[in-house]
Amino acid sequence: xxxxxxxxxxxxxxxxxxxxxxxxxxxxxxxxxxxxxxxxxxxxxxxxxxxxxxxxxxxxxxxxxxxxxxxxxxxxxxxxxxxxxxxxxxxxxxxxxxxxxxxxxxxxxxxxxxxxxxxx
Length: 120
Known about the structure:
By secondary structure, the protein is an all-alpha fold. It has helices spanning 2-7, 15-18, 26-44, 48-78, 84-94, 116-119.
């Protein structure tokens, strides 16, 4: 056990630090809880009535999420002059084509890579 503690690296949990999730409004979170309860109810008692209730709440939640995303997007776009860092961060996130791989030094010290495939 001493060897394990000494030589095996400890795993660090970076789940909450590394990624930031978009903040949902409390009303949407509440609707999501209700939707999940309706789904559990349907799975326990699979009737048409329960499924229709779940579908209605599911569609309501999806619509609320879309509306909230649109509001956030419009807010970022309208405030691009005042908050350019947030605007360009959003633009960068929405890009489908990323920057190419830069030149790298080779392991044997011969110089730099010439193509993206060599660098990758």
